[in-house]
Automatic annotation (TrEMBL):
UniProt keyword terms in alphabetical order: Membrane, Transmembrane, Transmembrane helix
Transmembrane segments: 94-117
GO terms for cellular component: I band; sarcoplasmic reticulum; striated muscle dense body
Entries under Pfam families matching the protein: Phosphodiest (PF01663)
Record protein name field: Type I phosphodiesterase / nucleotide pyrophosphatase
Organism encoding this protein: Ancylostoma ceylanicum
Top-level lineage group: Eukaryota
Cross-referenced InterPro entries: Alkaline_phosphatase_core_sf (IPR017850), Phosphodiest/P_Trfase (IPR002591)
Amino acid sequence: MSLHVEEEYNKLLRLEFSSLLALIEERAAKGRSAVKNCPPATMRSSSFVHGTDEVTPMVTTEGSVRNNGAILSVSSFSPEKGRQDVSAARFRHLYILVAILLVMVLIGVIVTAVVAVRLGHMEKQVERAQAQLPRNVKEALDNFKLPMTWQFLPQSTAPPNVPPIQAEVHEPQPQPKEQQQYQRTKECRTECLRKDISKPPLVILSLDGFAREYLDRFTVGALEYMTKCGATAERVYPPFPSRTFPSHYTMVTGLYPESHGIVDNNIFDPSISDKMESMKRGNVDAFYLGDPIWNIYKRSGGRAACLYWPGCAFNISGLRPDISPPYNKDLPFRNRFDMIVDWLLMPPETCPGLITAYLDQPDSAGHYQIDDKDIEFQLAILDTNLRYLMDRLDDKGLLGCINLVIVSDHGMQKTNNTHYFSNIIKDPGIIPASGVIGRIHKHRSPAPVDELMKPFECERGNRWKVYQRSTMPTRKHYQKSQRVGDVIVEGMLGTSFYRSPADDWFLKGDHGYDYLRSPMQTVFFAMGPSIKKGVVLPAVQNIEYLNLWIGERIICQNLVTKPLHAQKTGQQA
């Protein structure tokens, strides 16, 4: 209670006490007056006059006035005693207020304790859920099947826990292995049945993530048919790192990633952007250097078409393929092949002489369904689609008129050893890049490169190797571009790196490792009027593909050789 309030309260008490004292004095005076008018003898306390109960005061010897048995003591009343009574009443109010406050505090303590216990319980539940999350996610990925693929299975083979899907089937059903006789029953087409095609168009089809090892374990009838009717390679070495965008752009430029600029699927270049940029999205023209095959072909007077080939929509030169629909990952493979056939059926003046096309399988299956049964299932679907393409080409009289090449960008490896940069190096100034080849850009870190390498050197063991950009092995051609990063952490097979646990994709398989590792090696198949039949090439690097397209005059003749010489030496054309 503030001082002002207390003063007001005291004034009120004094006023009430004065009024009470005046009333008592008045009653006492009346009593004394009544006593003077009465005889000194003691009188009855009450008498009945005319049938009424008349109250008669009685005066005692002590000078008190008795009224109906109640004695009002006049001589014994004290102002000091009245003040004590008022003070006691005042403090009684304070005691009640303090008691109420104590009860409220006690209730608050109880509520706080209950909330704290509940929050602690919830925190433990969250910790258990976080600990369980990786396993739950991995189990979900293990059991995950795209409904779009389950609908292609015969009803008798569909798993019992997969609900039936009521949808129109747009893809062919895969055939059992014993029925894959395509390579034996279909004849090779050696003659072109179309008189309006004077020069064979080149169709390059990339199957993302098709490992060379798959051919040792699975049957793909369409590819065996191409082996019988054309040429193949024992194995193909991708560039370093064996990633989708670097490898695809190497195949069409004849340049190593350090020269064409696409050093990984994610790139940091402060001269272009102040953050890590994904090559899968955004306007990234400035990242793509070199001279891709469609630019060369267009300058020679031809028309080029691109169907989702990584990088065909971007180039620093500003040139684009004449036909390049926007990427649609949901477009079924059959529809993509129909588009290719339709382009080849265009009139000669508008028909593209070069077509580059991309399919995202079996890469997706390799990342999330690395088990043999899953890979075999996806390859069966892919085989059925490839046979559909060849049958469509044959029906239109085009199969013997075009040079069809099927390639891939990399293989696939199971991963089981994940590390997070946030747990290894504590430097907010760096910019790390995730992948099986971890890259660290010094950026705003004040630490020298040697200091940034130390946390990795202390516990590298057999899990990774760490390099400065300048000390990378020469054969990997990963030194010249600053986009590579300042520190390169090369994971061994099965090892992968993420910036933090929040960036973990829980992949079951990944790629990007050294191209000399057999799981990273891939395939090459070709057939057509310009391809020798029954040829098996020794192991080749896919950087040599551009020399095959041009040097063997598959698509171009009498081109200027200066750009080609520059690309062979690893310089930007």
